[in-house]
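Q&A FORM
Asked by: J.P.
Topic: structure of OLC1v1032592C1

PROVIDED:
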Amino acid sequence: MMNQAVQKNTLYVGGLAEEVTENILHAAFIPFGDIKDVKTPLDQATQKHRSFGFVTFLEREDAAAAMDNMDGAELFGRVLTVNYALPEKIKGGEQGWAAQPIWADADTWFERQQQEEEMQKLQAEQKAAMEAAEELHRKKMAEEREGEKDDETANGSDPMRMAEAEAVKSS
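REPLIED BY: S.T.
REPLY: Here is the structure written out as tokens.
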């Protein structure tokens, strides 16, 4: 997107309420200068606009003033986003879908699939390594606890041994 030239006299207006028509959009932006064209692209399924439109001014300065004043403004209770518009493109990239065979992006699709599989494999290996490390840690902790019990027994905390030792001392 960054390599596309910006159209300095056409503004993208996003966040339009459903009620906003091209006439209302024209009326909202006409205070900033002479307008060449207003478009609100329609959704083919619903025949309603897709909550954005384009306003083309005759002069760049008027477009700049409109953007400065209307970005963040409210229209029909909705906050507008106003930016310079990017040039219109045919769907499917620079050449459009019709100019490319259906398999044109197959290589990149396979590359993406392969990268995704490699990433999943790495994540699975990482998870297995973490689980193995946790298991090893649990075993080591259990062995240490067992060692402490053996030490306690050897140090005379066993009640039977203590009783035997007392008996021996008494006699």
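FOLLOW-UP: Helices lie at 22-29, 60-70, 106-154, 159-170.
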